[in-house]
Amino acid sequence: MTPHLGPEGWRYLPTDAAVRETAAIDASLARFQCAIESVNGQSIPAALLAEALALIRSLAAESLAIRQRYDSLFDAVPDPVVVLDEHGILLDLNRAALASYRQPRESLIGVSIRQINPSLPANHLDLVWESLERGGTHVEQTSNRRADGSEFPVEVHSASFDDHGERRIVAVARDLTGRDRAERRYRQLLDTIDKGVLVQDTRGRPLSGNAAAYRILNIPTGWLPGRADLRDWRLLDPEGRRIRLRDLPALRALRERRTIESTLVGVYRRGEGDLRWISVTAVPQFERERRDPTQVISLFSDVTELRRDYGLFQRAQSLARIGGWQWDRWRDQWYFTSQALNLLGRVGEHGKGGDFAGDSKSELLERIHPDDRLTLEASLHRVANDGDPIRIDFRLCGEPTVWLRLTGEPEGSGPLAARIVGTIQDISESKQAESELRIRAQSDNLTGLLNREGIQTELDARLRRAQPTGIALLYIDLDRFKIVNDLLGHAVGDEVLIGVARRMRRAVGNDGILARFGGDEFMVLVDAPHDPGLPIRLAQRIASDFGDRFSYGSEEFSITTSIGVAVYPQDGANAQQLINNADAAMYDAKRRGRSTWQSFNATLSRRQQDRLKIETHLHRALESREFQLVYQPQVDLANGRVVGAEALIRWHSRALGEIAPDRFIEHAETTGDIVRIGEWVLREACRQLRTWRSAGLALSRISVNVSYRQFLNENFSAMVGALLADHGLGGADLEIEFTERVLIEDISDTMNTFNTLRDMGVKLTIDDFGEGYSALNYLRRLPIDSVKISKSFLQGVPDETSDVAICRAITGVARNLGLQVIAEGVENQAQRRFLLQNGIRIGQGFLFAPGMPATDFAARLVGQSAK
Ligand code: C2E
Ligand code: MG
Ligand code: MG
């Protein structure tokens, strides 16, 4: 049967129907043939003819029905179906095709497939036939064109069939417009999400990726699929080691047929330096019932920054040596970061580090220095119960000392927070720097020993201990150091101090902490709970070590020490008391003849108490009018005539009784009260002289003792001038006695005061000369008139050769300098004779008269003038 092309197009009958139709018609015709032959021989029965014709009619009707069924079936296919001849000429199209191409049937039948499929390459049909001849179907995606020129995507499934020796193609085109739209939406969706999505085939070859994948992997858009060869990539594990391709999460997911979750992978393309860290989750894809995945989807995000930040954070933490900790209160579970463990010295125990949980508090406390445990525990208790943030520095056990700072606060608010979190930081270095700074601030530049502040800090720290036993102080003063300093100059003085420090260091060794407490004062802090005899042994050792002479250049001299010892707690309940009492003991040692040591004792203690009492009452004595002046005559040693008077203060304390100036002047100097008291003395003496003069008593001048503290006041000379003027006296009516201490304190300012006073005509006398340390070269520069030999030298005169020698020497020097010499403490005739023999004319002493009340003195003067 030949297909025919008509205006309806080509219709091909299905084989079975065609065969049956053909067979029926053939049979019918054969019988018809026989009938005709028999008619030729024996006429055709009319009935037979009618049967044949009826059969032919029915066959024709059936054939039509079959064609109709085919047509309706053909048209019922919802997708466009076309039948092509071998060369691609359209033989037939169904209704869907006509609707899709929006063309009438007649304009398409007989035209080339290109009409509706213009994008096909020239050799397209060859390719189709090639694959059809291999058997099976041919599938391709392409686009079809409508009459108006618009195109739509199609997936075409083609099959071939033999049409009576002619090769035909039937092609079903599925309109992909809808699928494409869905796919586009899906792509858009994929492209908007921030996660990279990469689809790979079963061998790991990338098939497609979304925009984020391109961006994260830093590859050009459209690069996938095909061009991305995985071998171009280098892959790293979190530790930075190369990993093999097969360890990539996607390939593992394929191999292991399971999802591989959040795996950190470092990726970079060969020849490019840009390493990205991605966190990948790979999900294998299975098709229907298949056991093996058909592809794998990897979802990944770029954690490069995060990792860098985390890395930086970790690094910063490890550089700053900061670790973190957390304490789950209710479970008493402790969590430490690896750095925290590191700091606590735990890293070795828990492998390569990493967060460690489960440590108990007692285990933590074990690592902490026993002295700091209680404080730390108390702090933890505080943060846990009161919710107060804590910051505490503590040491770890062991050497060298590691200092850690722990901060902590409740997580969230409220004291009942379940967790306490905080940091641990190594602060050893800053502690070290701090202590170095402290040491520097607390050390003496010259000797390198601790300074006053330093030793006080040390002492305070020891007294703060829970049971401060065995603590003692040695207060050491160099005897006669001032002489060395004055005679040889400060440079040598400094050298001597360095030598002294060295010698002391040797003597003290490790038995105490040595400090330079002041100019020529040193201190040793002894901390020996189990050796109560040590402080005294040390004092003895130091004292005897200083028996040896010091030599500097050609100079050789001895410097001895006076040492006072005070022991905690009996000799002082606090640092200041201990220092004061060691000082008092030292003074006592000095008083008892230097080069010795003295423990603080009951007598000294009483003296201390006295001193306190005295200072208290002294303060109000002036207002309470408890002071009085007595006058000791100064006489011409040759004839006993009164030539002057020294005013001496007396204190009749209502509370304490009679107190000698030797007992209170020093305190008044310490407290500064002497300035007010001294001014009163001067005024009172002037007033008295005025009174006597007015009464007609002839007294050439009055001597007043002035303390060094008064000289420190720069208005002193002006005050003296005003007082004199107030009482109608001249400068020559006043003699000022001062000790050598005035010369030590501040020579340049004092010099001005001296000059002014001298200009006013005031007589200037150095009292107690020889006792102090004034170098004789001072005398040459000072505008002074006379020196008063200390009565301590006169005591041994004339029997003690040394005293005699000193007196002679002083007299000689003074005379050479043109100074007058006055003697005090003249108690007997032998002394008087000695003085006269040595050319000393003026003296005072009990031999003539003690200090007397003004009326007694006046009486004496009157008596004298009466003689
Ligand atoms: P000074 O200025 O050397 O006074 C002499 C001291 O020797 C006086 O003691 C006097 O009473 C005492 N004395 C006098 N003759 C003899 C004697 O023959 N033998 C002995 N052993 N002692 C004698 P006083 O009054 O107790 O004064 C002691 C010191 O107190 C004075 O020593 C002086 O340095 C100081 N002082 C007294 N009055 C004042 C004052 O108004 N102002 C100041 N700044 N100091 C004063
Ligand atoms: Mg005097
Ligand atoms: Mg004197």
List the helices and strands and how they pair.
Blueprint: H1 15-42, H2 46-76, E1 81-85, E2 90-93, H3 95-101, H4 105-108, H5 124-133, E3 138-145, E4 151-163, E5 166-175, H6 177-192, E6 196-201, E7 206-209, H7 211-217, E8 233-236, H8 249-256, E9 260-269, E10 276-285, E11 295-302, H9 304-319, E12 322-328, E13 333-336, H10 338-343, E14 356-359, H11 361-366, H12 370-386, E15 390-395, E16 403-410, E17 419-426, H13 428-441, H14 452-463, E18 471-478, H15 481-488, H16 490-508, E19 513-518, E20 521-527, H17 534-545, E21 550-552, E22 555-557, E23 561-567, H18 575-591, E24 597-599, H19 602-621, E25 627-636, E26 642-653, E27 657-659, H20 661-671, H21 673-694, E28 702-705, H22 708-711, H23 716-726, E29 734-738, H24 741-745, H25 747-760, E30 763-769, H26 776-781, E31 786-789, H27 791-794, H28 801-816, E32 820-824, H29 829-837, E33 842-844, E34 852-853, H30 854-866
Parallel strand pairs: 23-24, 26-28, 28-29, 29-30, 30-31, 31-32, 32-33
Antiparallel strand pairs: 1-2, 1-5, 3-4, 4-5, 6-7, 6-11, 8-9, 9-10, 10-11, 12-13, 12-17, 13-14, 15-16, 16-17, 18-20, 18-23, 19-20, 21-22, 25-26, 25-33, 25-34, 26-27
Report on the structure:
With 867 residues, the chain is an alpha+beta fold. It is built from 30 helices and 34 strands. Strand 30, helix 26 and strand 31 (786-789) form a beta-alpha-beta unit. Helix 15 runs antiparallel to helix 16 and helix 20 (661-671) crosses helix 21. The longest helix is centred in the first third of the chain and has 31 residues, at 46-76. Residues 1-9 and 347-359 have low confidence and may be disordered. The protein binds ligand C2E and magnesium ion (MG) (2 copies). One magnesium ion is lined by residues 767-768, 788, 824.
